Amino acid sequence: MPAKFPPVPYLKNFRSDGRFPPEVYDSCAPSYTHWNPLVRWWAWERVRCAQKLIASCRGRVAVDLGCGFGVMLPFLSERFSRVYAVDIETGPAEQVRRDFALSGVVVARRTGPCLPVAPASADLVVALDVLEHVPDLAAEITALHRVLRPGGNLLVSVPTENRLYRLGRRLAGFSYEGGQSHHRHPGAAVLAQLGLAFAEVRRKAILPVMTCSLLVLYERSAVPEVSQHGRG
Questions:
Q1: Is residue 77 part of a domain?
Q2: Are 141 and 230 spatial neighbours (Cβ–Cβ below 8 Å)?
Q3: What is the pLDDT of residues 8-45, one digit of tens each?
Q4: pTM score, two decimals?
Q5: Which strands make up the sheet holding 105-109, listed edge to edge?
Q6: Structural domain range at position 32
Q7: Which residues pair with 1 in a beta bridge?
Q8: Which of 13, 33, 103, 116 has a CB 3.0–4.6 Å from the CB of 108, allowing a cystine?
Q9: CB atoms within 10 A of CB 45
């Protein structure tokens, strides 16, 4: 597990002490605290890879979109003056903000298509395993482009949907149908749409061969040209 991140026992306490309903816990941190060590490794290795890709990114404002339990917040708050933790369920991230004394973190609930961040204000947006779930991919990419400043960076992770990835999901007990784990868009389709609106800087696979997840760092380009095929 990366240093300066909420430890597994801390995250497990969120469920055992009953501070959040089970469905909230299961939607935010199932992989990070999974009983299977391979599933836990996969989840935390994705975080480690994300750290490496954005280690040189600095600035005033960062956004953690779909922040879940806020495992990225301590890392981001060391590098940015203000970090917006955005999700449809904000209780877990707010708890992490308080317990880790992250004074520069603002937890914001996502209630509509627009992100609760000023236009062209973000130096970095992180969206780990988020975009494959959104109903309207084209609108989401436009919203990301809107909040990033010119030259700002976007870091995403997407599933590869290959046999190893599907095996990992079966081991974890996650379904492809319904709920928070439902995938509306294949990872390849997400990256194709992002390539129309952002310039790719570099990418990193969690495994060198037959990887299960892919992380890609982008830079904001001038005008988004998002295909309408990403809708719905």
A1: yes
A2: yes
A3: 666 766 665 555 555 555 555 567 777 788 878 888 88
A4: 0.82
A5: 105-109, 80-87, 59-65, 122-128, 148-159, 213-220, 198-205
A6: 8-111+120-222
A7: none
A8: 116
A9: 16
